[in-house]
Specification:
Layout: E1 4-13, E2 23-31, E3 35-39, H1 46-53, E4 61-66, E5 69-70, H2 76-82, E6 83-86, H3 98-103, H4 118-130, H5 146-159, E7 164-168, H6 176-191, E8 196-200, H7 204-207, E9 213-218, E10 221-226, H8 228-231, H9 234-241, E11 245-250, E12 253-258, H10 264-269
Parallel strand pairs: 3-8, 3-9, 6-7, 7-8
Antiparallel strand pairs: 1-2, 1-4, 4-5, 9-10, 11-12
The structure holds adenosine-5'-diphosphate.
Amino acid sequence: MGEVILELAGVRYRYPGVDRDAVGGVTLHVREGELVGIVGPNGSGKTTLLRLLVGVLRASAGGVTVAGKPVGEWNRRELARIIGVVPQREEPVFPLTVEETVFLGRYPHMGALAAPRRADRAAVQSALERCDVVAFADRRISTLSGGEWQRVRVARALAQEPKVLILDEPTANLDIRHEMEVFELVSDLVHHDGIGGVVVTHHVNLAVRFVDKMLVINGGRVEAFGTPREVMTREVMERVFQWPVHIETIDGVPQFVPLKSTQTGSAENE
Ligand code: ADP
């Protein structure tokens, strides 16, 4: 694994007018070639953590370091060349083609009103190929299926040629095949191409099959950080999600099954 690309050291954040921290002292690092998952219940601070990582919010205490430099010392355009973001919700409403959309990812590399250079075209072509969307490069984005649209959004982030990719709920509303395809693509970009990856997801079972490390956050605090085997324990999952679970190991990876409330008794007897 490569250099540390993102680092949080004791980061706190409190929204103005709120009497508790949304993120309370989180320490975390992500290396190039490493995929880190962030999971936790609703309201646990995942979105706030992402906003801190990309420099949209400034930490109230502690430090965020991107590629060895405090996040606040990078200008926006420089930061956009390092961090590719696939945000959570975005409807394909603009009358753009797939290729035009992926070209938008080149913006941080291009001068204002500049014509695309050879390097820009090459990066777009490579991103289209890498995400397997070449076949519909000329289609309007409004005509894409959910799975295709997600791959296009990853391609747009990739066209930036980032050192780290941050994805917020990349498989929301996708069926099993398409959510597997998205995770396999992200895992390949990280583990084969060597960029860093951070993925926030509700799909804990899916994520642990692909990530190297998992951060479990609860009430703005780190409940567990480690390999899937280290964090996917019944104790941690039940405490964080406040629901009885059963843990099974499939392909060497722990998976959890939420029990019906009426089954809790038998779970206790195991
Ligand atoms: P998650 O993404 O895990 O659902 P969030 O980071 O959105 O969690 O929220 C963490 C906490 O911060 C929650 O208590 C939420 O109510 C609060 N919060 C989020 N955004 C704001 C905001 N703009 N102003 C005030 N409080 C906020």
